[in-house]
Design a protein that fits this description.
Number of helices: 16
Helix content: over 70%
Number of domains: 2
Shape: globular
Strand content: under 5%
Largest sheet: none
Oligomer: single chain
Amino acid sequence: MLSAQSNWIAAAKLGLVSSTFSTLVSQLAAARIGRDAAVDWMTVAAIPLRDGVITAEPSWGAIAGGIAFHQWADFSWALVFFGLFGRWTAELRPLTIFAVAMPWAVFTSATEWLLLVPLFPFFQPIFTLQQPYWIGLLVHMSSAAMYPLFAWLRFPLGAAPRSPEVRFAKAWARGGAAVVAILGAMAGFGASVREFPWLGMDRVADQDYIRHMTTHHRQGIVLALLGTERARDPSLQSLARLMVARQAGENRIFDNWWQSWFGTPMPDCSAQERADMPGYLTQAQMQEARDASPEQFDAVFIQLMSVHHRGAVAMADQEWHGQGDLRLRIMAHAIRHEQQGEIALMNGVEGIAAVRTAIANMTSDNVNGMDQAGTH
């Protein structure tokens, strides 16, 4: 039987391993489900470092800050699981640890998403309103998946007995290394525009969605850039920078997927397609933003960007409920969540209201949003 102090030391070792594993998985797998890892790390960095860390192009400092904060959080949860609760968890068999660790991942990710980040102690609503809960859940599950290694790491290096539990834990570690290697290979192929082929039941709908959302995002970036330059409210200015970073990152993923799946340059949208696109602003509306006086700009920006975002939400929701490639549908669900969240953030939603809004945004059915997205 290990002492409580030994449990804490082993928990620290396990925390380093599990947090590093989840960082690698998050980084390598992000683009496979339509996430820009650099923007996600920057958003995480904004939890302790606040809005000032947000830039239109994520800096290496912001990325490093996000990774460090993420690893600290995962490390802390491992200390609680095997240190604070070590009298109940330290002696469990590896598969039992895994069975307990998965509900633990649900609990810890929900605690962060619903309480610790948007409320006490960080009071930062951006994370919860930008990322649907399931993203954090997947990250926490990847970290908790390494908890069975505790049966091996609880012993000093080279001193572990040749027990079935230790042999199983070592095999589990090799499996984790294989997962990282596979994800690394997939990321390498993706960087070479060789993503896994398109799999869906409605090719035309997916192609239309990618083209339309790419065009929609391009206009959103133009409007958001105005916000980065002219917004008087510092929080609104930071949010505009995040909009630029997020939509530019998503467009890079769209372009990569298009080339990988369809093997041709992405056709541009016609003038009629733009006119029919929900939330796509007219030239007069864009000029209204450019001509707005300094005193009026923030209100005009919020009003026009809200119309624009609602259109994106409507398109993303239609894709989410469609029969396209699962990766595109997963990405669409995240887009509809983040854009609804940005509308809330532009209107100063925070605290309990931010949590309630995020839950509603993640679970809402916006199938009829096309008719409410804003008309020209």
